[in-house]
Amino acid sequence: MIMNLNELTLTQAQEGLRAKKFTSVELTQACFDRIKKRNKEINAFITVCDESALQEAMAADKLIASEKAQPLTGIPFAVKDAITTADVRSTGAAKILDNYVPPFEATVITKIRSQGGVLLGKNNCDAFGHGASNENSMYGPVRNPHDTSKVAGGSSGGSAAAVADHQCIYAIAEDTGGSIRQPASFCGVVGLRPSYGRNSRYGIMPMASSLDTVGPITKTVEDTAIIMEAIAGQDPKDATTVYDTVPDYSKGLTKSIEDLVVGIPKEYFDVPGMDKEVASSIEKQIEKLKKFGCKIKEVSLPYTKYSIAVYYIIVPSEDSSNLARLDGVRYGVRANEKDLFDLYAVSRAQGFPEEVKRRILIGTYALSAGYYDAYYKKAQQVRTLIKEDFEKVFEDVDVLLTPTSPFPAFGIGEKANDPLALYLADVMVSPAAVAGMPALSIPAGTTKTGLPVGVQLIGGRLQEATVLQFGYALEQESS
Fold this sequence. Notes:
By secondary structure, the protein is α/β, with parallel strands linked by helices. The chain has helices at 10-18, 24-42, 50-65, 107-114, 157-164, 181-187, 221-231, 249-252, 276-291, 307-322, 340-351, 354-367, 373-393, 419-424, 430-435, 464-478, and strands at residues 45-48, 76-80, 118-123, 143-144, 147-151, 170-175, 190-193, 213-218, 261-265, 295-299, 399-403, 439-446, 452-458. The strands form 2 sheets. It has an 11-stranded mixed sheet with strand order 1-3-2-6-8-7-12-13-11-9-10, with helices on both faces. Strands 4-5 form a two-stranded antiparallel sheet. The radius of gyration is 21 Å and the shape is globular. The two termini are 17 Å apart.
């Protein structure tokens, strides 16, 4: 069967470009053809860069012809709209930034574009990353390519859907509490949340600064490794980035996992409402690891049960501080009001969706005088205990295996009127985020109705190489 160019993995696209089987212009046009055909239904893109992308593709073809190509040269990619891109509209999926075209861009995007990567456009998302279903975008919800009546997951649903629907070769997204991994699970693709500090956060529209991370959504684990080699590393513009040398992730993929220890945290399997088909899919992954010669060990992370509570105090608190900069004065959309207070109030009321407003209010309350110690400070103390839980467990195991989500993609509108139910959708992915650990979601099969199921691999701090190694082994067994 002849594969359409837009359906290629990053690795396959690399090989085809280097072998002159097709050009970057042809590869880019194949992605645009798919976007034109499907984006109206899926709603994965807010902004499409038709002209500039083809110009970038032509420049990439010249680099390839002159034998100056780098790993990402000529490969079309998309970017979550909460990540800034120079001279390309970056809305954060909120109307308050509907007309915002930044003069600068995120470090991770600069690294890709400096290699000759081709930017196709900006992906839809929950506004500023607020949500677990991609229904909180002011540009409409993203639909799951496997069943358009279902959500794509959030907040990076547009990025996951674009990759799953072959509208791009890969995407760069952002994960605060699960925003890469959960939509990757719902859409049947690969998503990596790196350790906090591994990748630069410079140029990311800040949601919760102590949790935000940037990572790739791809079609294969190998593709993820290649992208991480390009975007990871210390950045003078982000003081939270670490100086540790970036490993050669690709070379480590094929290392044997025989005799390595896989921890199965019991708290992740006692979650009320766990879907039976999800549980069955995860059990199959555990059996595969046994066949590889891995040692399976049940472990306990007792403070895991507090992760959601901790997350939803820290995030709104940091939200309320970070989003104060969006007032309709310095940039973005400004309400036509003469009084300064009314200008602030109306600009924010019209420019923020309800979930953003809800989190700002909760966070402002949690940080207010008389409540800071009881809420934000206490949450940070419990956060330390959650981190220590992980550190203790990783003294005895190499990686943890859990479901990415307790259920497959749910219906659009199904949980829209129940914010607490949506918050609980992050129950499997928030603990690693709170602790700053790397975590990878890879496809683990489908339900009887064809909805993807994801398995999550969590590693020790800065051990992205280990989770990728395990993910690659499971992926090869499934292919």
